[in-house]
From TrEMBL:
Transmembrane annotation, as ranges: none
Keywords, comma-separated and alphabetical: Acetylation, Fatty acid metabolism, Isomerase, Lipid metabolism, Mitochondrion, Transit peptide
Domain of life from the UniProt record: Eukaryota
Full protein name: Enoyl-CoA delta isomerase 1, mitochondrial
């Protein structure tokens, strides 16, 4: 990902990611490392400005583009690994959770923090967390909007390994891909999709309902006020 300053996911960036995933699949890619050009941020999650006073059709397109990208990422036939050498809140955490393996560096925060912003992590975000860390830990983390530090993320199983820095993180991600290289492709892909099928189907069969929930939620005046205040706090921080 290379959308400075924080790889926030707007419609255009989500489309780019989706196109890249389609291309990799068409080119029979043997593995992907999802990484960031930023030295300190993996991805800041959804671009909050897309949810602030949006036009209805633009908001619908934004959400459908996110769904398209995630359905592709979560179901890739090739192995995927997230090299998390920077913070990964909310949608950034979703990207990492959607890969098959996660390597993180020290001093990083990762988690689905939506509750803290007065928004709700959609069901499929929640499913991704539950599938990785289990029901009890996911419920606790999601209700609190907890951001895990590196040690906590490793302890709870949210990530698989800690590496010292970006270079080591990429090297460990490559080692994971190498460990998969000799597995029969069809068997590997079939088992992966078997595990992920119910999570994927839940969104595929409920896409329109999921979009409706998003739209109705974000268009509420009190939610818009919360988003406005959050945007102000973010820009005050950097100003
Ligand atoms: C029922 C369903 C309803 C709704 C579901 C909606 C689901 C939403 C999921 C999401 O992903 S919401 C997004 C949540 N993301 C966050 O809370 C992250 C916020 N950002 C940060 O915590 C920090 O920026 C950072 C830790 C990622 C990086 O910190 P740092 O390196 O110190 O950068 P700055 O904070 O100074 O930010 C630089 C610049 O970027 C802007 N920005 C940051 N995050 C976002 C974002 N998510 N969207 C848009 N813009 C963002 C920030 O305002 C600064 O902009 P300036 O113009 O002031 O420089």
């Amino acid at each position: 990902m290379n959308r400075p300053p924080v790889n926030s996911l707007n419609t255009e960036h989500l489309e780019q990611l989706h196109r890249a995933l389609v291309r990799l699949e068409n080119e029979k890619c043997r593995g992907m490392i999802l990484s960031s050009s930023s030295p300190t941020v993996f991805s800041a999650g959804l671009d909050i400005r897309e949810m602030y006073k949006p036009e209805l059709e633009k908001a619908r397109k934004f959400w459908r583009t996110l769904q398209d990208m995630w359905l592709k990422l979560y179901s890739t036939p090739y192995p995927t690994v997230a090299a998390i050498h920077g913070h990964a809140p909310a949608g950034g955490c979703l990207l990492a959770l959607s890969c098959e393996y996660r390597v993180i560096v020290p001093n990083v925060k990762i988690g689905l923090n939506e509750t803290q912003l007065g928004i709700v992590a959609p069901q499929w975000f929640q499913d991704c967390m539950r599938n990785v860390i289990g029901e009890r830990q996911a419920e606790k983390a999601l209700i609190a909007g907890h951001m895990f530090n590196t040690e906590q993320a490793l302890q709870v199983g949210l990530v698989d390994e800690v590496a010292a820095d970006k270079a080591a993180c990429i090297a460990r991600a490559e080692a994971f891909l190498a460990s998969q290289a000799n597995l029969p492709l069809l068997a590997r892909k079939t088992v992966k999709l078997g595990f992920r099928n119910s999570t994927l189907s839940r969104l595929m069969t409920g896409r329109e309902a999921d979009t409706k929930i998003f739209i109705e939620y974000i268009f509420q005046p009190k939610v818009q006020k919360g988003i406005e205040l959050y945007l102000q706090s973010l820009s005050k921080k950097s100003g």
